[in-house]
Amino acid sequence: MATLYIASTETFVGKSAVCIGLLDRAHRDGFAIGYMKPVSVSVTRTDDAVLDEDAAFIREHFDLADPLDRIAPVLVTQSVIESILRGQSVDFSRRLRDAYVSVSRDKDLVVLEGANTWAEGSIVDLSADHVSDTLQAPVLLVTRYRTLLSLDAILAVQRYLGDRLIGVLINQIETPKLDFVRSRVVPFLQSRGIPVFATLAEDAQLAGVTVADLYEFLGGQIIGNPAWNERLVEHMLIGAMGGEAALSHFRRRANKAVITGGDRTDLQLAALETSTSVLVLTGNLRPVPQVIDRAEERQVPIIFVPDDTLSTVERAESVFGHVRFKQQAKLTRFISMLDESFDFARLYDTLGLPRT
After folding, report:
1. Is residue 201 pLDDT above 70, yes or no?
2. Cα separation of 322 and 316, whole Å?
3. Residue 109: which of 277, 334, 351 has the closest Cα?
4. Which terminus has fewer CB within 10 Å in the chain: N or C?
């Protein structure tokens, strides 16, 4: 039986999507698969349960038989933190080991999804390095590339883990930098004993969100046919310029959200003359009938929110770049990218799994 810990040093690098992609391919290759999220600080409360939504989704997606409290055994809730601060101790490591023994039974491969950052989970003594050490799990690091400084995090993890780091997957590489990463960065890392299993380009479909996602996050009110809420938002532009410059500004990006003041009718109409997926109007001002009519003609929903433009932009920015992997189209796309680029043969050899 093989175990693989998927780690990252920052949030929103596609770690959950990588877990799904690797599990999907291993399942198609005939392996019995298991999944765990050893530590979760992203806890959701429902009427009858406290759970990790990502773990619950992956369990359902693969129809895994293991109970959710084994798949996500350590939930770091506010009450857990308060208990620790009061000096009350719980052996979370033992809870993790017991769950791992249960989940790994009769499996060929168990994929462990790490926390959002390298330090997360430290309050329960289950940071990334502690979990991988406790379960003797080799680590695949998922990271994004922005500049050469991105290499610092990779080299630091190697120094910390040593041979337990089996390699990296470099994700979300901006297209102009792709050739440089593949011709210069990959050979450098491999010369330092760090295999690179895949280099994946930034993908607009994966980075985007739907109108429904944006509305769920921003709140407010929405106008338009509910069917339009599945439109993909790939970019975000702010409307704050003069009316004459607006049209040229809005033509720079397709499939975008335009965020502007609810009183800027001129900018709203200009945005609707270009490829716009949604208008987001601030100041809790309902658009004038002329804008509503034009938006209906173009099948563009309108969200209006009580916040000011700057606050709305800051909130919206936190949504972008996070691969909302629960959307089937994105899952299919990402799995296809892994099939094309990821070195599964090398991974199976490294983990001691037989090639199919």
Report:
1. yes
2. 11
3. 351
4. C
